[in-house]
Structure formats: structure tokens, C-alpha cells
């Protein structure tokens, strides 16, 4: 008899021999975001080149030229530092600069941080109830948070644990964008940057 929560596990990394672990992790993080968008009835476009945005997301069936949309940078990691009600994450300096820029003409931009299991063999759980993705995604707006001090490599950001990305949370981000309201960090629980 198979337990409902039994993973289809491999003994280890030999299944992934010759494949870059970071690429697998990044691919899985993006799949988790895609699954959330599909569950929320959203349409998304993946960019071929990394220009600071991984996806453009908008409501399905919306009129392209008038509907709000979001720009999203997806990052994934298997280990996050917990500090109080926040996850601390070292975001590369270029991504921070892109996401913290205030753009009055463009769409709101968000960081979607996907927490994944340490072992690729634990990314999914196959059960009679369905295939379950083991990923938790959190959102953060950094718009207007750039203090002008250039960093050479990384910038530590605090992502509120309360900002768990769900289909309902995605709908609220779109409702805010539709009202023309910029996503501001000051309206989110604070944890320092």
C-alpha cells in the first residue's frame, strides 16, 4: 500500500549527473510561479533574454493595451535565513537595482522568491490526490527602496513571510495595478533592507 504523501524519490543526485543543479532549481522555481499563475487564471509571457524581468503577467482575455500587467523577477533558493517574520535573501545587485527603480510609465515590478527543497528528488510528491509541487513562493516590492549606494555583488532583502503568493494574493496585486497604484514597500510589513 502506498502512502498518500510518498515521494517518487531518487536515491540522490546521480539522476541529475551532468546537469547544473542551479539550473534545475531555477527551472523548478519558474514552474512553481507558472502553476500559480495558471491556477489564478492569468496569462504569462517568458522573456528569452534576462533583462531583469523573467515574466510579464496579465489577466487572461484582458485587452492587451488597456489591461494592467506585472513584471516579475523569479529567484529560487533552498535555504532562507529566518529573522523574525521575514526571510532574508541575498539578491544580486543588478536585480535589486532593476526592481527598486521607480518607473512611472511601466508596470509594477515584483520579486517572486521561491523556496524549494534542498534535494531535487523532493521537488514533487506523487499521490492519488495529484502531483504536488513542494515550493512556497513569496512576493516583495522593492520599488523606491534604492538608496543610491552601489553594491558590487549582493543586497540583502527582507521578504515578509506573510507575503505568501497564492492565487488570491496575485489577484490583489492586479487589483492594485488596475487602480494605478504603485507597489510600495511601506505598505508591507517592515523588516529592513
Automatic annotation (TrEMBL):
Looking up InterPro entries in the UniProt record yields: DUF4365 (IPR025375)
Q: Name one Pfam family in it.
A: DUF4365
The chain positions of domain DUF4365 read 28-176
The source's superkingdom equals: Bacteria
Q: What name has this protein been given in UniProt?
A: DUF4365 domain-containing protein
Q: Which organism is it from?
A: Glycomyces harbinensis
